[in-house]
Amino acid sequence: MDISVIENVLKKIRPTEEERAFVNGLMMELGEIAEETVEELGLEVKPYFVGSLAKDTYLAGDHDVDLFLAFPLETPPEELREKGLELGKAIAEKLDSHEVAYAEHPYVRASYKGVSVDLVPCYNVNSWRDVKTAVDRSILHTRWVNESIKGKNDEVRLLKRFLKGINTYGSEIYVRGFSGYLAEILVIKYGSFLDVLKKADFMLRQKIIDPENWLRKEPEIAMRTVKREVELDRPLIVLDPVDPRRNVAANLSWERYGVFYFNAMEFLEEPSTKFFFPEKAEAGDYLDELRRKGTHLVTLIFGKPDLIDDLLLPQLEKSARGLERALEREGFGVLGWNCGYSGDKAFIMLEVERVERPAVKIHPGPEFFTERGRDFYRKNERVWLRGKMLYAEKRVKENILDVISELLEKNQASLGKNLREAVKDADFLVDYVPSELEGEAYLFLSRKKEGLKV
C-alpha cells in the first residue's frame, strides 16, 4: 500500500491548529450563551454538543454545530416542543440569524460567525431505555464514540472523505448511504480506514455487526431487531452500540453499498487521491447518448412544491417509479429513471425503448362458457378463442405522451402525495430538455451519475 496517498489526503482533511482553535472557541462561546439563556428562562436544561465537532471527527472546513438542549425525562412531550422551541429562539436571538426547521419536532437553525448551528430540544437520556424521541440517542452516540475511538479520529476522517468522494456518504432518505456515525462505528470496530475497506466483502457476508455484544446482553430485543432487518433485506445490520432496537445501517441501500464495495476493492488494488477528491465528470451531449443507444428520453417538468429535500426527493422518486411501472404495464420498456429539481422546477426523466406502440393490444379474457365469458363476448368487437379462453383486440393510444396523460388523468400511476396535481400539469418533452437540464440528462443517460464503471 502506497502510504503517501493517505498522507497527502490527511494533509487536506485534517483540521489545522488554527482551525481547531476557532472551532473550540466557537463551541465555548455557544455553550456559555446557551447556559446563560437557560438560566435567564429559569429552565432545568443541560446543553450538549453532539455530532462530528463534539467527537473530533469533522473534516477540515466542515464546522456545522449541533447543540442539543436536553430537558428532564419527566418533561411532557408538548412542553418539550413548546419550551424547546422557545429556548432555541432565545439562544438564536443572541447569534447572527435563525429560522425554525422541522424534524420529529421543531428546532432552530441559526448562524454564528459563518457557521450553521442547529439548536435541537431533546431528553436528557442516560440509557437506551430512556429514549423517547429519535434525536435523544445523539447524546449517547457522542458519549460512546468519545469513549471508544482511542485516537482513531483521523482514520474516521479518511473513511468519511472516501465515502464523500465516491458519493456514498449521508444516511438521508434521498442518499441512502453511510452516516457519519456508521463510519465511526466501522473504524472503531475494525481498527482503521484501510481495515474497513478490506472488510467490505466480509461485512456483507457476516451481515450482522454487533460492537457492544447486544446479542449476548439483550438477546431477545437484539434478535427482534435482526429479524426485522433481515426481512427488510438490508445489506448490513449494525446494532447501535447504544440501543439494541436500532440498526445504524437501516437507511443504507444495496446500490450505495455496492458502489462502496467496488471502490474499496479498486482503491486497495491501486490507491489514488481520485477516490477522495474525484474530478468533476466531463460534460457530454445527451443527444449523442440517445443516438448511440437508439433509445428515447421522456422528461416531465413541473413546478417544484415548497417542500424540504427530505420530503420532496423521496416523493419525486416514488413518482418516477410509479410512472415506470405504469408504462411497463402499457408495453413501453423503461430502461431507467432520474429525478430532481433545478431552481423552481422539478423534473422526472424516463429513458424508454420506444415512444410509439401499435394501435391495438391483445386483451385476454375469461373462459368462454362462464357468465364473465358471455359478458366479455358482448362487450368486445373482435373476439377469438385459444382453447377455452377468450381474447379480444383493445384499441389503445399509440404515442407515449398520450399514454402518460391518460395514466395521470385516470390516476393509474402511483405518485408522491404532494406531487399529484403538479405532475398532472407537467410539460412533456421527448428527446429534448431545456439548456439547464442538458448536463443532468447526459449524466443520467451515460450512467455517469450513479455508475460504477462508465
The structure class reads: alpha+beta
Form type: globular
CATH superfamily of the largest domain: CCA tRNA nucleotidyltransferase, domain 2
> Would you identify the regions where 5 or more consecutive residues have pLDDT less than 50?
none
* Topology-level CATH name of the largest domain: Poly(a)-polymerase, middle domain
Number of strands: 15
Question: Could you give the order of strands across the largest sheet?
Answer: 1-2-5-4-3
* Rg for CA atoms: 27 Å
CATH class of the largest domain: Mainly Alpha
> Based on the structure given, which CATH architecture of the largest domain is correct?
Orthogonal Bundle
Helix coverage percent: 40-55%
Descriptive notes:
The protein is of the alpha+beta class and 454 residues long. The strands form four sheets. Strands 1-2-5-4-3 form a five-stranded mixed sheet, sandwiched between helices. The radius of gyration is 27 Å and the shape is globular. The protein has helices at residues 3-13, 17-40, 51-55, 77-92, 137-148, 153-165, 180-190, 193-198, 200-206, 214-217, 219-231, 254-269, 286-293, 309-329, 371-379, 400-409, 420-424, 438-445, and strands spanning 46-50, 65-71, 97-102, 106-112, 115-123, 208-209, 237-240, 243-247, 296-303, 334-342, 345-352, 360-367, 383-386, 389-395, 427-430. It has four domains: 11-135, Beta Polymerase, domain 2 (2-Layer Sandwich), CATH 3.30.460; 149-275, CCA tRNA nucleotidyltransferase, domain 2 (Poly(a)-polymerase, middle domain); 286-357 and 397-445, Alpha-Beta Plaits; 360-395, no CATH class. 44% of the residues lie in helices and 20% in strands.
